[in-house]
Structure formats: structure tokens, C-alpha cells
Amino acid sequence: MNGHKKKLLIVEDDDAIARLLSMFLREQKFEVSVAQDGEAALQEAKSTTPDLIILDLILPSLSGEEICKAIREDDDEEVARIPIVVLTAKSADVDRIVCKVTGANSYVTKPFDRQGLLEEIRKWI
Predict the structure, then answer these.
(1) Is the pLDDT of residue 3 over 70?
(2) Which of 82, 86, 90, 115 has the most C-beta neighbours closer than 10 Å?
(3) pLDDT above 70 covers what percent of the chain?
(4) Residue 92's domain spans which residues?
(5) Position 125 in a domain
(6) Tens digit of pLDDT for each residue in 24-67?
(7) What's the CA gap between 81 and 51, in Å, rounded?
(8) Looking at residue 91, which CATH number applies to its domain?
(9) 40: CB partners within 8 A, 6+ apart
(10) Model confidence, pTM
(11) Any idea what DSSP says for residue 9?
(12) Which helix (H) or strand (E) holds 108?
């Protein structure tokens, strides 16, 4: 069981960013799945229980904040404990505070440094 790849769920509606992130993280030996809207993200999180979620805030159907809150309040304790790294273009302090309150573990702003993001991911899993 020890050799299994860590599963990451990328929640990102921008195709280019999702592809770039997926490629980079697969190179780092992670198993990666992508959800492009809030509803899909929640379904994926519940059905696959990834080791970590990389979450954009500005999404169709449900905002990142709503997804974060829904995961933290999930009945399944394993799902509720999934580390969440917010990756967003929103850089205002108020957004950081909202994410802390809704239960995000970490907050990274776009444009992001890939090494910095990788360090954040490794810190949580």
C-alpha cells in the first residue's frame, strides 16, 4: 500500500491552467483528476477521497468557498479531512480570511510558482 501514488483533485475551470497543472503534477508522480465546476468537484471528492484538493475559487455552479465549506461539513470524516490548497487569482486579504474560515489549509495566488505550490502540496500530504 505504501507505494501508491498520492491522488490530487484539481478543481479549475480554465482548461489551460488545469492542463498545465495536471502535466506538472503527473511529472511529480501524483495521480491527478480534474473537475471543472463545483458540482463535479464535490462528486469527485466524495467518490474518490483524494489525498489533497487544489481548489480555484471562481468556478461555475458552486464557488470554491462553497465547495470548501461543503467538504469540511461532509458526513464522511475522511472527506471532511481532505487538505485543501486554494489556488486563485483572488489576492485580497478578505479572500484569504474567507478561505481560512471555510476551512482551506493553504492559499496560493496565481500566477503561481510551481515549486512553491509543490511545497504547499507536500506540506499537507
Answers:
(1) no
(2) 86
(3) 98
(4) 7-120
(5) no
(6) 999 999 999 999 999 999 999 999 999 999 999 999 889 999 99
(7) 9
(8) 3.40.50.2300
(9) none
(10) 0.94
(11) E
(12) strand 106-109
